[in-house]
Each structure stands twice: as structure tokens, then as C-alpha cells.
Design goal:
CATH topology of the largest domain: Helix Hairpins
Bound molecules: zinc ion
Structural class: mainly alpha
Largest sheet: 3 strands, mixed
CATH class of the largest domain: Mainly Alpha
Distance between the termini: 11 Å
Mean pLDDT: 92
Strand order of the largest sheet: 2-1-3
Helix content: over 70%
Length: 238
């Protein structure tokens, strides 16, 4: 068997590996699994963001409650003083205290309004958080289940791929280094790197007609001749 024949056989085995690797990558279950994995990651980010928001809201709520308590205490103090006889030295002081009480009371009511909004918001937030969290858990469970099925499938696929690679290795035996090196170099630029001669004098890779001198060399010698147009190694099947 000539070197180019061996190389041609090697290319067949090589393309089997490439094809199967592509098939594995495009395997629908794998695609679904990757999508699901992204979904799980997105939902985890969302959940984390909501947890941070909730913590910040709780802090604001606590600050508002403290303010509310303070205002209540202020109002109570002034009211008590007003109720006492002789609580104030002058009518002016009493009037001032009354104004203060009114102001504090206005603030207190605004504060209560804010508080009730905050409580309502946090209830909404809590409901939404629960919903998202449940979705996240569901997606993660689905991912875990599918992953288990896929892992079994992947093991089978890997076994087949290894067999194809072993066949390729077998086909590489007895190919001289110079031939293999050239093949590998061209493989990086054109896939597949070898092309059969078609229609008498055309390169099967790019359909260009080959000059007569190239044709002559091709038929007579077992050496690497590349298509001038696409760079593939030309092969004549005997
Ligand atoms: Zn060509």
C-alpha cells in the first residue's frame, strides 16, 4: 500500500472522529442541559439579588420603626406636660409646646404612612421571592435529573468516541512522518485536508481543473501534491 493510500484511509478514520465529536456536541440532551444550567445560574443570581434587597429593606424598616417610636415618645411627653396644671411657666411656652406637638404629630402620621407602604412592599417582595425560589429549586431538580441521564449517555458516547480514536490511531501506523506532518498542517486550514480527483482533472475539494503537469505527477508518483487553489492534498483512487 502506498503512502497516499494509507493517508486517505487515515483521513476517513479522522473524519469519523470529527463527525462524531460534532454529533456529541450537538446532542439535543446536551443542548437542553446547557440551557437548563444557564437558567439555574440566572435564577440563583436573581434569588441572591432579592435576598440582598430584602435585607436592605428590613434595615430601612427597622430605622423607620425606631423613628416612629421616638416621635410617639415626643408627642406623649408634650401632651402630658400640656395636661398638667402649671406644666408651663407661661402661655407662650404652652403655645410653643402645642405647635411642637402638632408638628410631631404630622411627622408621626407621615411616618406611619411610610411604614404601612414598606410593610406592604415587603409582603409583595416576600411573595415574589417565594415564587422565584420555588422556580429555582424546580429548575435545579430538573437539571440534576437530566444530568444523571445525560451522564450515562455521555459515558456511552465517550466509549464510542474512544473506539473511533483507536481506529484512527491504528490507521496512522506505517504512515511516514513527512506525510503525516503535511496532512496535519493542511488540516488546520482545510477540512478535510485531502481531496479526491473528480471528473478526470478536477480537485474534489474546490472543483478547480488541474494543469496537465500536475495531472502527470499525480498519476505517476506517490508523493504529496497540493491543489494550487485550495491547498488540499490531491488523491487519485486506484
Ligand atoms: Zn482544490
Amino acid at each position: 500500500m502506498q503512502q497516499l493510500d494509507r493517508l486517505w484511509n487515515y483521513q476517513k478514520a479522522d473524519m469519523d472522529v470529527v463527525r462524531y465529536e460534532t454529533e456529541m456536541r450537538q446532542f439535543p440532551m446536551r443542548q437542553k442541559l446547557l440551557k437548563l444550567r444557564n437558567l439555574v445560574a440566572d435564577q440563583q443570581t436573581l434569588v441572591k439579588g432579592m435576598e440582598n434587597d430584602a435585607a436592605a429593606a428590613l434595615e430601612r424598616l427597622e430605622a423607620m420603626r425606631a423613628l416612629h417610636e421616638k416621635l410617639q415618645a415626643q408627642c406623649a411627653e408634650v401632651s402630658e406636660k400640656l395636661a398638667q396644671e402649671g406644666g408651663f411657666e407661661s402661655a407662650q411656652q404652652a403655645r410653643k409646646a402645642l405647635t411642637q406637638l402638632q408638628e410631631s404629630d404630622t411627622k408621626l402620621r407621615a411616618c406611619e404612612k411610610d411604614l404601612s407602604h414598606m410593610v406592604r412592599d415587603s409582603q409583595h417582595m416576600g411573595a415574589r421571592y417565594k415564587e422565584i425560589r420555588q422556580k429555582a429549586i424546580k429548575a435545579r431538580d430538573e437539571y440534576t435529573k437530566l444530568k444523571a441521564v445525560y451522564d450515562v449517555e455521555f459515558a456511552k458516547q465517550s466509549e464510542k468516541l474512544n473506539a473511533l480514536k483507536a481506529a484512527r490511531e491504528e490507521a496512522a501506523k506505517d504512515i511516514e512522518a513527512a506525510y503525516m506532518d503535511r496532512y496535519t498542517a493542511i488540516r488546520g486550514q482545510a477540512m478535510p485536508p485531502m481531496a479526491k480527483l473528480v471528473n478526470g482533472d478536477q480537485c474534489g475539494g474546490c472543483n478547480m481543473s488541474l494543469p496537465a503537469v500536475v495531472m502527470q505527477n499525480l498519476r505517476s508518483k506517490d508523493r504529496i501534491i497540493e491543489c494550487e487553489n485550495c491547498g488540499r492534498i490531491l488523491y487519485v483512487e486506484n
